Amino acid sequence: MELPNVGQHCNLSHCNSLDFLPIVCPLCKHVFCEKHRLPLNHDCSQWNLVDKQLIQCHKCLNLINPPSLPKLSPEQTLKEHLESDCKTYLYQESNSKVEFDRKCTVQGCYNIDPRIGPVRCDGCRQDFCLRHRNPSAHSCESLLADEKRKAERKLAAQEKVAKTFKVTNKIEKVQTIKPVPVKSKNGSMVELMKMKSQAKGDLSVPVASRLYIYVQCPKESFADSLSVFFDKVTKRCNDIT
């Protein structure tokens, strides 16, 4: 827990609640919570020794001290107190709060917030303000110890790996794969146009009805291979010489 020392417990045994803004009774000097802060609420042992003129406001629950000049009755004092929004005739020590030492462990720092109190570092067990509460903000000794432990664990792990595994350098032969040539689309179109320009057939057949084929002649004929076309509607081809 980052704020273990903030607040105090109510002095009443049947309450003992933790209050982060505890209040000291101005009469018995004991610490109480907000609910039991007034003498009448915690049966203050010193209540009988004070002036019986003290009044407790039912609205703000503060103690009211009637003025000596002009002398007012308790009823008039309470009335004027309520008309001033509970600001007049307050008993001067009725809201005394517990004071904290504002000095931070960091040299030259006095910024501990009295409303929160000091923050104790879990590493070095020293008290700091909110600004210097983190270990890195006050160069905590625990950081150096952590770095040392990390370095020792890293060295031990490296030694264990070196003993367990033997590192060998093996060069694996990589089989090279020759790329297969791929005919481009433009090359196929050129071959088709060349075949059509050299094809033989009946010139009376309309161009739209021509079906072009490539004829591979047998070796014993000693004839060259050639391209021809015929009518794909009638499926008729004239003799080619």
From TrEMBL:
It comes from the Eukaryota. Keywords: Metal-binding, Zinc, Zinc-finger. GO terms for molecular function: zinc ion binding. SUPFAM superfamilies: AN1-like Zinc finger. PROSITE patterns: ZF_AN1 (PS51039). It holds the Pfam family zf-AN1. Residues 4-52, 98-148 form the AN1-type domain. GO terms for cellular component: cytoplasm. InterPro entries: AN1-like_Znf (IPR035896), Znf_AN1 (IPR000058). This is AN1-type domain-containing protein. It comes from Rhizopus microsporus.
